[in-house]
Amino acid sequence: QMADPFLYNTGDRSHYGCLGHEVQIEYLKAYVCRPSFSVDKAVIVVHDVFGWRFPDIRYIVDLIAGHGYIAICPDFFKGTEPWKSTDHWGDFADWMKDHDPMKVDKEADVVLKYLKEQCGAKKIGIVGFSWGGMAVHHLMLKNPQLTAGVSLYGRIIRDSEERYNLLNPTFFIFGEKDHTISLDQIFLLEEKLKQYCKVSYKIKVYPGQVHGFAQLKPEDMKPDDKPYIEEARKDMVDWIKMFV
Fold it and tell me: Which regions of the chain are under pLDDT 70?
């Protein structure tokens, strides 16, 4: 039995009252949160397998908006069912075939157009978690409009050397105890980036942390993990602030 790759313990999550609102952008729904003052910088947040309505991801959107960015989480699953913690793990591979994190280019373009034309955004960054971390890695190789990216524990896909030629500054965040991503894979990523990447990049591994650690809401954190979760979030925001 292969270990469950994306799913961390979603357990009983506390309720979260969101600060933003939902919008329709062409064929996509999205959750948007704006700062209380006018800004021309935005961040796209790419959800994990649990989709754009998952409370943890909305918490992250609100947190980023609190740092002075228009923050938006589009439904990259385009109205199809997200993975649920009650689903059977044996069906995951089939589910993934219809939810490919490398096939997000069209949705990204729709959201970029909206942010530029409707929200007045001049600089746009992107952050993504797990499934979304893979999508960010892909988009940072393909879309020059994204001025910086943060990929949080996206499984590392090694289909070719083209995986390393990033277009703009990208930060990769991993947990040391993530059973889906081995330290060997992380070392290889670092080696290949040194070889092929022409822009700023950073890789950081957080001690003792498991898959999904950085998106927990404060009341769901364990005391031992809290400092690492807060550090990862601060590092994520600092990277965005440096480049976006």
Answer: 1-17, 159-160
Beta bridge partners of 91: none
Q: Are 134 and 101 in contact (CB under 8 A)?
A: yes
Structure tokens at 241: 């602030």
Q: Which domain holds residue 148?
A: 21-243
Alpha-carbon distances of 197 from 8, 125, 135, 168, 203, rounded to whole Å? 31, 18, 18, 9, 13
15 belongs to a structural domain: no
Spatial CA neighbour of 48 closest among 36, 58, 62: 58
pTM higher than 0.90, yes or no? yes
CATH code of the domain in which 202 resides: 3.40.50.1820
Distances 161 to 44, 147, 197 between C-alpha atoms, Å: 26, 22, 10
Alpha-carbon distance 155 to 24, whole Å? Answer: 30
